[in-house]
Amino acid sequence: MFESAEAGHTVSQKAFRREEAVLRNELLLAQNALRNEAAFPVLIVIAGMEGSGRRETIACLHEWLDPRFLSTVAFVDADRDDPDHPPMWRYWQALPPRGRIGILADSWYAAPMAQRLAGELKRMQLDARLERIRRLETLLVNEGALLLKFWFHLGKAAQMARYRQLRDHPETAWRVSAASRMRLGQYDAVRKVAAHVLRLSSTAEAPWIILDGSDDNYRKLAVGRALRDALAQRAGHPPPRIPHAAPLQTGRDRRNVLSTLDLSLALSDRKYERELARLQGRLAGLMRHRRFARHSLVLAFEGMDAAGKGGAIRRVSAALDPRIFQIVPVAAPSDEERAQPWLWRFWRRVPGKGRVTIFDRSWYGRVLVERIEGFCSEADWLRAYAEICDFEHELVEAGAIVLKFWLQIDKAEQLRRFREREQTSWKQFKITQEDWRNRGKWAQYQEAAVDMIDRTGTGRAPWITIEANDKRHARIKILRSICEAVEHAMGID
């Protein structure tokens, strides 16, 4: 795999200066076109052997391009630097918006490779991490990103020569640390792990470009050419689409997870008030428990219009310390959010450990309203099922307790609540023409909700269906479900 990158490619200083003048101009023109059209983002992953020139190449790109529209984020020991969030959270924060170029130094590959070298990851665990990375990269490409991944390689002799060059020069000696000296002694192990990682993570949509890192001039020109050519090839062409989901079944039985709910379930006022106080106190105590510091709580509320999501959220939040929770009302994405992959606006709201985030509507809009209203293509919402499961898996793996509630009412109850809202002054803002229009698509929303629950309900991030014709019953069932899930996660009987 690395043989051609150890061949000792060289470019003279004269040849470098001659080509640099032309290449730099071409890159600036391509960057300006990218910025003006803002059709897609560019993400450049820079990784490689110790001493292979990653720092110098990134500095060169900042010199050649307009640095105002270029960002670089370095991830040295990301898993340990921010233990409160899922590992992928920090990378989502670093994604460039459409029209911009972002450079990730080492990126999501650095931590699993370092942990494998340290003996902290078994081969099977490393492969599982790489599979999650491949799925993330597929999502980014499907969302339109141009993804370039460079690995700068060095042979053992070239690495040692580079080390001596840095060590012996007063201006670069500071870069030779104890850690870098240790990695020199791990050359064979690093090469073996790198070969395995690159082989498993090089895909048709996001291949690795392996370059000889021994000559600065050759490496810089090779990266510049690759970026220029990729931008030119992509200009005016739609991004590739990678199949990511099986089609939905048709002709299913009329009985389903929603149609079989008993919507007649109800609570008396007296029992409701007693249970509400008891469960709110129980939840408040769980949030103060020392074990909750190892977890976070993510609650997603979905349901038909006027199903009672807002009232249920108020009863949950009343039990929480305002300092540890946030409520995120989800509406149409803003311009800033549309410039990013569709899950970005939810990743940025992921709570740290010891905290709670409540989503009033959620990422499931992609397979509900966006599916039904045609705001995204069929391919986009079909692949969203798997992308949602990956997202929730990342949260759960990092200690989050993820619960998703679907509040179900029948059509007659919805009509009663709509009319009540129109006739109650302080509720009139809650009813719009869009609500009445959506009511005409009742059957489509029900079908989409059944598909959503079937495809994304898992044991670790379950859907909890709520019989919501009676608001009192719905609120108590929600509070009880949260308490039981938190107690189970924390090992409390």
Automatic annotation (TrEMBL):
Keyword flag Phosphoprotein: no
Residue ranges of every copy of the Polyphosphate kinase-2-related domain listed in the record: 12-233, 267-488
Annotated EC: 2.7.4.33
A molecular function GO annotation: transferase activity
Tagged with keyword Transcription: no
InterPro entries according to UniProt: P-loop_NTPase, PolyP_AMP_Tfrase, PPK2-related
Keywords: Transferase
NCBIfam families: poly_P_AMP_trns
Record-given protein name: Polyphosphate:AMP phosphotransferase
Species: Uliginosibacterium paludis
Name of the coding gene: pap
